[in-house]
Amino acid sequence: MKALCTYSKKNLLHNLNVIKAELKNAHPRDTHKVKIMAIIKSNAYGHGCIPVSKILDKEVDAFGIILIEDALKLRDEGISKPIVLLEGVFNRRELEMAAEYGFHVVFHDDDHIDWLYENPLPRKLHAWLKIDTGMGRLGFSLENADEAMRKLKNNSSIYERSIRIMSHFACADNPEHSLNNVQIKEFRKFIKKYDDCEKCFCNSAGIFAFPKMHYDWVRPGIALYGGNPFPVNSTSPLASALENKLKSQLKPVMTFKTKLYKIKEKTTDGQNAGGYGAGSLCSKGMRVGIVPVGYSHGYPRSTQNGRVVRINNTNCRMISQVMMDMMLVDLSDCPDAQVDNDIILWGDGLPIEDVAGDSGRISYDLLCGVGVDHHNKIVYSWDDTSSKLTRNKSQATKETYLIKPDI
Ligand SMILES: Cc1ncc(COP(=O)(O)O)c(C=O)c1O
User: Fold this and answer.
1) 151 noted as active-site residue
2) Which residue's CA is the closest to the ligand 1 atom numbered 13?
3) Residues sharing a CB contact under 8 Å with residue 323, sequence separation 6 or more, in sequence order
4) Which one of 92, 226, 295, 398 is CB 3.0 to 4.6 Å from 115, fit for a cystine?
């Protein structure tokens, strides 16, 4: 039996509106609108970068993605908004392609500048300069960033007027963490010299925790998909308050589910619940449900007990280990459960954060885990069939998509 990932267009748009409302509330008197770059890397966190970008194309200002191959697919599908290659390019040829197709490139390393200076590019390119303010991942160090900016500005292949500056929070989900202030201070010091450049700092958590850092662009990922960017049970008072607020505002886009495959009634006391290790012994008469999903579908194996699935609006306790393709649940609290009833593994009515928290995981990796490469085991579908969310080849040429510098 196949599992099912259903995605809600309505909830995706709802979450985007939650973010837009936050931006608006934070700057009620500003006339300039904070622009939104929707982060759709890793197949839009398992939701499918093509359907997600089709839904959001008219609603956001740009998309952030990693691979140029994926950026090309989006263009092929008719996506018209700027596409930003968040990790930059991986060789000179990709830099040329980015220029040819009008993709924006994040420059974060000397290699990028060297490739830029090898030869003029076939067309002018949109550049973002990434600085490392403390994340320790990608970005020019603060000592080298001015020189990188000078080289970008002086290169005739770059749209000098549209160079943007970006950095990335390491601990925005823990707003009281001391590194946040260090990063903010470093960013502010750097950007002082570049009044004419647009700036971008915040991911989802940053948007809600640091409104003064919104600048010209924000880059939400997880919040778009309805994942709470703040951890459950945080020791940070602000994170707890924001977690609580967003719990009631964001709605899951993905619901991961399956159907009840079989029901077994235990005939004697102390009988093994089933599965490996004989971990759970059942009493006579207990009805045990066989759930045909396991870790090979991307459901997390490790559990610290108390994991539940939802059947007929009732939480049912798991009583076996998560096996490769199955797990077993106690149907005692759901006496009306029948074979073929829907079982929600996470999503609608069962927050993914509960499953993630119980398994030492985070919502991000669970979403990405089921959303990629399970096409023989999981059926993926959007609730909205009115707009064509599957392949829809456009007749566009790359000329159609060359983005003007002032976008
Ligand atoms: C550069 C960059 N910006 C924004 C995001 C979005 O982060 P989040 O999903 O926490 O909103 C990511 C995701 O990791 C990222 O790498």
Assistant:
1) no
2) 221
3) 275, 276, 294, 295
4) 92
Strand partners, 347: 350
- Check: CB of residue 223 under 8 Å from CB of residue 209: no
Mean of per-residue pLDDT scores for the chain: 90
Ligand 1 pocket test, pick from 39, 42, 132 with the greatest ligand atom count within 8 Å of Cβ, gives 39
Specify the range with the lowest mean pLDDT, choosing from 3-12, 50-59, 243-252, 385-394: 385-394
- The SS3 call for residue 316 is strand
pTM for this entry: 0.92
Rounded to an integer, the average pLDDT of 393-399 is 41
Q: Cβ contacts of residue 78 below 8 Å, gap of 6+?
A: 54, 57, 392, 393, 394, 396
Provide the CB-side half-sphere exposure for 266 (13 A, CA).
Answer: 23
Residues framing ligand 1 (Cβ under 6 A): 39, 86, 168, 203-205, 219-223, 229
Q: In the annotation, is 276 catalytic? A: yes
Q: What percent of the chain has pLDDT over 90?
A: 78
Residues forming beta bridges with residue 344, ordered by sequence position: 257, 310
